[in-house]
Specification:
The structure holds two protein chains of two kinds. By secondary structure, chain A is an alpha+beta fold. Chain A contains four helices and nine strands, in the order βαββαββαββαββ. In chain A, about 30% of the residues lie in helices and about 40% in strands. In chain A, strand 6 and strand 7 form a beta hairpin. The two termini of chain A are about 25 Å apart. Chain B is α/β, with parallel strands linked by helices. In chain B, helix 1 crosses helix 2 and helix 3 packs across helix 17. Classes of the chains: A alpha+beta, B alpha/beta. The complex binds thiamine diphosphate.
């Protein structure tokens, strides 16, 4: 089962290493991790997507809470949050295929951000699942390189992470 | 103007620190220089690991954080085992390390070590200070974090230029405010109510008491609770001393090396009340089985411990001292069934076995038992790791004193330095070390510290010329193939003692051991008693 956690932390040097160290030390499997500062410059927000059963995720939350620079840990439940990841995909693309690939990008609402004689680079911002669909569609053309930010998440509606 | 080093000393003074354990080096020299202007006593240990153990012994005996100090690089890395031991045993210590100049950090200069990085898994929190003006806040927070919630070690790493730099003035903060650290000590009243309901409707309850009961300072109230309800008490290794060993409701230590009556009661109980214990694998080898048969109330200050090792019926996060009164109050009309009390009494008798005697040797279990009655009631016994630890855990009869050992980490060499710390915290109490000849040799260098500072600790070496506990394991699991578990028979501990100017004697029978102990206790000087013990003496 996949879980998405939002973690508010003090924006200090060394905090990220404390958090990532905890994951490896306690053998928590994480799929992705994204960090960035929030509207409060003293606070960063980390989004983690982790894999595990209820026991594992509960332990993960509790152990994170024990770290002093961690201000808040919130586990998101299905449907109550919006999640996105940003992906750049460089696809092998001879002139003959250009139109086809552009059509796929258009269909998926991805943006073409770079073109060369033999490649085309697509920018995509969506959920992990939809991103996977795009990647599957592009795979047959040959993916040269793919880079992704890891998921970020935000509560839907008026609720926020502190609640 | 005031330097960082002077601020460090002033912070320690503001925290009421009267003794620190340490070892100097270039990167911590500014601090050591300032220390000369202070009333704070510095105990020069012989290896940094032992400064952390000494700080731990001091903390456990005094109830206040212990402080250890080391230089950068090798001094700091030598501390790690001591810090890790304090972490696993939940002991509040403050470790202060010097660091290379802040503008050189990360360049692998002489004696640079990333000690905050290296200690990450073993500290409750750590600081690498990068501004002199941060020092007062950092020290205030460090002492607060180490000593509140679940206690543990905090590391403060201070580059030498930060120690040297002068700032305008020193103001020690009165309060701390760390947004990410607000330990919940309260114990939710709804949960407490549920616990009381479970207790009063149980028929075969037991209390499992751990180190948390001792760090919370509620052992007398726990005894009251047990006496009022008739609920028997078993303890983890870290919890030994929560009750006088001779108390009729005390069933002894649980676990692989524990008392049969304790383990049996745990498995027959219909309700287990776990107080300040995490129930690690040494205490309960198969926690799933335990929760199948019984309901479990788990009270712990660390929410992460609840549900980690055993499934819990009623989890209660908080400090024992905030719940024990309610438990006493809420169970006034309750008493365990007569049948349960009688059953337990029966087991206690039935399962008592007299140890076999090996001619020409001291029987360590009988001797440790005898020793308890020879010491003052508030004596502190510090046991090392190995068979000696088990002999003490199961046979030393605690009255009002303490039993100090490392139950979580099991670090050989802990006892001698920890006893140094305990004696400095409690100078009027008897402080006695029991160790193996293996573990003694891991920190015998501290005899230098003992001799130089006239620290009146008594050391009893259980000399079986083996790494006894491992040898026993090799007997039981490896078909008696002894690999690397024999020590050197020719080593003369009496001569070592003599070299340090410490009195000593050896015993080959319990009569001899008792006679020497009798004299040893009366002197106000350190003493080493070597008990020759048969290598075939089992742990239990
Ligand atoms: C630092 C350290 N190294 C190794 C061990 C593994 N170990 C556990 S008990 C033991 C033997 C201890 O021998 P000794 O101190 O002579 O005590 P005895 O068991 O003979 O009483 C060993 C090697 C340990 N606990 N700590």
């Amino acid at each position: 089962m996949k879980y998405t956690l939002s973690i508010l932390v003090e924006n200090h040097a060394g905090v990220l290493s404390k958090i990532s160290g905890l994951f490896s030390r306690r053998a928590f499997n994480i799929d992705s991790l994204a960090v960035g500062v929030t509207n409060d410059p003293n606070v960063s927000r980390i989004t983690v997507v982790a894999d595990g059963d209820e026991y594992v995720v509960e332990q993960l939350e509790k152990q994170l809470n024990k770290l002093i620079p961690v201000i808040k840990v919130k586990r998101h439940t299905n449907g109550d949050f919006i999640s996105r990841e940003l992906t750049l995909i460089k696809v092998h693309c001879p002139a003959a295929k250009r139109f086809e690939i552009m059509k796929i990008a258009e269909l998926m609402q991805a943006k073409i951000v770079d073109v060369s004689t033999s490649t085309i680079t697509v920018e995509f911002c969506n959920t992990t699942e939809v991103t996977k669909t795009l990647v599957d569609l592009l795979k047959p053309y040959g993916i040269r390189e793919l880079v992704s930010t890891g998921t970020i998440a935000l509560e839907k509606g008026a609720s926020d992470v502190t609640k | 103007m005031i330097s960082g080093a002077e601020i460090m000393v002033k912070c320690l003074e503001a925290e009421g620190v009267s003794v620190v354990f340490g070892y100097p080096g270039a990167a911590i020299c500014p601090f050591y220089d300032e220390l000369l202007n202070s009333q704070i006593r510095h105990i020069l240990v012989r290896q940094e690991q032992n400064s952390a153990h000494a700080a731990s012994g001091y903390a456990r005996a005094s109830g206040k954080p212990g402080v250890c100090v080391a230089t950068s690089g090798p001094g700091a890395t030598n501390l790690i085992t001591g810090i890790a031991t304090a972490y696993m045993d939940s002991i509040p210590i403050i470790a202060i390390t010097g660091q290379v100049r802040s503008d050189l950090l990360g360049r692998d200069v002489f004696q640079e070590a990333d000690i905050t990085g290296a200690c990450e898994p073993f500290v409750k929190h750590s600081y690498l200070v990068n501004k002199t003006s941060d020092l007062p806040r950092v020290f205030k927070e460090a002492f607060h974090i180490a000593s509140t919630g679940r206690p543990g070690p905090v590391l403060i790493d201070i580059p030498i230029d930060i120690q040297q730099k002068k700032i305008e003035e020193f103001v020690y903060p009165e309060k701390v405010d760390i947004i990410g650290y607000k330990p919940n000590t309260k114990c939710h009243p709804g949960q407490v109510k549920k616990a009381i309901e479970l207790i009063t409707s149980s028929s075969r309850p037991v209390i499992v008491a751990g180190g948390g009961v001792l760090s919370s300072g509620v052992k007398l109230k726990l005894v009251k609770f047990a006496e009022q309800t008739g609920i028997p008490v078993i303890s983890t290794m870290m919890g030994i001393g929560v009750m006088p060993s001779d108390h009729e409701l005390y069933l002894g230590m649980l676990g692989t090396y524990g008392k049969a009556a304790a383990n049996r009661s745990l498995h027959q109980a219909d309700l287990v009340i776990v107080c300040g214990a995490r129930l690690g694998d040494r205490a309960v080898a198969a926690p799933d089985q335990m929760s199948e048969n019984s309901k479990i109330i788990h009270i712990d200050i660390d929410p992460a411990e609840i549900g980690k090792n055993v499934k819990t019926t009623v989890p209660i996060v908080g400090d024992m001292k905030n719940i024990i009164d309610s438990l006493i109050e809420g169970t006034q009309d309750y008493h365990v069934s007569k049948l349960w009390s009688e059953t337990l009494k029966g087991w206690k008798k039935e399962l008592f076995r007299k140890p076999p005697v090996f001619e020409g040797y001291v029987e360590p279990r009988a001797f440790v038992g005898k020793l308890s009655s020879m010491l003052k009631s508030k004596a502190i016994l510090v046991a090392d790791v190995g068979q000696n630890q088990i002999w003490c855990a199961n046979n030393f009869k605690i009255r009002e004193g303490r039993f100090l050992t490392t139950g979580g980490m099991g670090t050989m060499g802990y006892s001698v330095p920890a006893a140094i710390g305990a004696k400095l915290a409690r100078p009027t109490r008897d402080v006695v070390v029991v160790c193996g000849d293996g573990s003694f040799q891991m920190s015998l260098n501290e005899l230098g510290t003992i001799a130089q500072n006239h620290i009146n600790v008594k050391i009893i070496i259980m000399r079986n010329v083996r790494l006894g506990m491992v040898r026993e394991l090799q007997d039981n699991l490896y078909g008696g193939r002894y690999s690397a578990t024999f020590l050197d028979e020719t080593l003369d501990f009496l001569k070592i003692a003599e070299a340090y100017g410490i009195d000593s004697a050896q015993a080959n029978s319990n009569e001899e051991a008792e006679a020497i102990a009798e004299k040893m206790i009366k002197t106000d000087k350190p003493f080493i008693l070597v008990c020759n013990v048969s290598p075939d003496t089992p742990s239990i």
